Amino acid sequence: MTLEYEKRLNELENKLVIRSEQIISAQEKISQTNQVHSLWMRAGLETNLHEQINIYDQILDVNPDDVEALTYKADSLLDLGEARWALSLSNQAIDHDQEYALAYWQRACAEAALGQHDEAVRDLETAILQSPALKDEVASETAFEVLHDHLSFKKLLQPDMQDDELS
């Protein structure tokens, strides 16, 4: 009888330890989620590009594979004229998630800034295929001004026009 009682008590203790670990893990995840949410709120309010980048770095410290943070950091870097660094971050974001349209958009912006116009148009096409609403933003994106005379870019914006009408 005592042995059976000890066995049941040990099983109960083991279950309690496992459940406690699960609760602690869940609390840590909630804390991290709250921290990241707070950082995103700060980033959205921050007007200083260097501070935005610092905030995105803090998000990436918590979650190194955060595709959105990589992409937004790339955007801030582009605004600072750091196109190569922005291209590298956009590539990382795409490596983590090939379905995230804004990463292709950011990579297209970086490529346009670096004079890689064909690559920029290809990535822009991918971004628009994945998120058609982005097509409405193309004309107002200053990073794409250098592409306005590029035939593939014109075709992307006006697919129904013939080549002779676009030139």
TrEMBL record:
SMART domains: TPR. The keyword Repeat applies. SUPFAM superfamilies: TPR-like. InterPro entries: TPR-like_helical_dom_sf (IPR011990), TPR_rpt (IPR019734), Ycf3 (IPR050498). Keywords: Repeat, TPR repeat. PANTHER family: TETRATRICOPEPTIDE REPEAT PROTEIN 6, UDP-N-ACETYLGLUCOSAMINE--PEPTIDE N-ACETYLGLUCOSAMINYLTRANSFERASE SPINDLY-RELATED. This is Uncharacterized protein. It comes from Capitella teleta (Polychaete worm).
